[in-house]
Amino acid sequence: MHMLFHSYLFIFLLLPLTLVCYYGLNHMNRPKAALSFLTVVSFIFYGYNNFFSLCILFISILINYGFVTVMRKAGDSRKKRTVLWAALFLNICFLLYFKYTNFFIENINRAFGADIPLLRLLLPLGISFYTFQQISYVIDAYRGECGDYSFLQYVCFISFFPKLTQGPIVYHKDLLPRLCENAPQKIRYENLCRGIYAFALGLSKKVLLADNFAKIVNIGYGNIPDLNSPSALLVMISYSLQIYFDFSGYCDMAYGICYMLGLKLPLNFDSPYKAESISDFWDRWHISLTKFFTRYLYISLGGSRKGETRTCFNVLTVFLLSGLWHGANWTFLLWGLMHGVVKVIERQTKIASLKIPKFIKIGVTFLLVTFAWSLFRADSVSDAARLWTQLFSGGFGGIYLPVTEKFQEIVEISLLYRAVRAAGLGALLEWFPWLPVTAFTVLSLTACFTMRHTQEKTEGLKLSDQKLLTTVILLFWSIMSLSEISEFLYFNF
Prior knowledge:
493 residues; single chain; mainly alpha
């Protein structure tokens, strides 16, 4: 397994070592050495138990920096355009080969009855993210929007470990100038405290919430035919909450690490379940990916400048490719198409301008997103269809018993069960075994709909004993719960 933010190795060794050495080198007035150190740390983080992925990353960096160098030396615009298209073609081929070759082979075999053997390919970690980031850099360099950065600066920018494996897709103007300043970075204890606070919030979201909802989700998707309607609904909502807290937790931790280093990542997660429409959802969920597709694909296709029919086509194209970007499976394609169709309907009906109560808009949007997430999570389209069938025709009754039993195995919940029984209320749990898991889900949903995003809370944070105590408790609680290390969901995309 590769290194993770929520691992003992990172929390107790790599992160403290990075902070001490980075600020130590800057204190010695050696900013170039500090930048080199960050690059080495990024390679260690990324290549830990994963040398193959590290090699692919370095090859990709060499190729793209070479293209940019050749482009800058090209005399006329025609040569520049040729280099640009060569770079784009090679990057896309790189991504297609590692991520989609077997998907294409499987579908060719299914369609034509062929027997082409699948290739033994290892998917390099984070290839979708750093490929898109380099594509954006190459295009911006072609447009003359990039400065003349050294190879070391470029390598550090692409490989910078807080955002390498799961985003955000950072544009050069958002990070490179600050990352590559010649002036030494001075430690600011206020930034350090705020960064630790953001990291603690993200760690708790991942470990205490996302991973616990994963237990419900895994049982549900592993036993779809046994689910009744309430159980199917619970499983679907649980996955919505799992991926929400998983991705939000990662973004918080990445942001917190950067804050500790005196840097800032752009906002990538803005309370998306507060969205009042699908359009609003994509302005809040994975913001950097939305901006990438808007800037480099949607606008290039003509955006909304070529009539309503062409606009709708462009929207559907963007969402189909967004779905495909997430994974080589028809489930992702249909998930993207579903979002695209709803966005087109919203555009045609101008639903955003209708005078509908805000809470209804938010509720309907959340249900649509949750319904679509079931495709995203399912192993196949048929599994998603079975889950929808159980949702609408599975009948009523109590929550699927293995779900409630698994939920009781969570340490915090098991202690709560003991406390309830000790208070003489054990009969309540016998009558309503689904009550704890339902209450846990409702409270988590309430947090999604009401709480501010972490970046907003961090930047406006007033340091106090209360905040310090909150941070310590969250860190201690989360670290004590690290018995089972699970990957972030977006590592798969």
